[in-house]
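Before the break, one more example. Copy the sequence into your notebook; we will annotate it together after we see the structure.
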Amino acid sequence: MSTQEQSGKIKAILKITGIPVLVASLCCLAPVVLVAFGLGTVAFAASLANTFYGQYRWVFRIAGLLLLTISLVFYFRQKGICTLDAARRRRNEIINGVFLTLTAAVVGYVVWLYVIVEYLGKLLHIWK
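Here is what the structure looks like once it is written out:
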């Protein structure tokens, strides 16, 4: 596999997983954005983050998973896998793509939410 093909596959994975990871992390990203743009106080952002992460984190995670599923469906349909017969013929490609994308999404979610957003929140004094 050439370097150009690998680069294309990495771009495709990032395209599929990018928006779902952002949606899944909105529980903590929204308060950071509010403070960063001056649309809310630190106290309000901390309260909002506690509410979103405490009570609604699974809603955000499920929304991200649904978006990831929709992204995968669009991706495979774009590659010409539109019928069950085509899905059966290219079963290994679908399984590998789903596992690779799911792994990339989980790693992206963990790094984005628990490293990047966490440090941004600490920088803005939302979290101690």
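Helices lie at 3-24, 26-36, 42-55, 57-78, 84-89, 91-123. The longest helix spans residues 91-123. Try to locate both features in your own notes.
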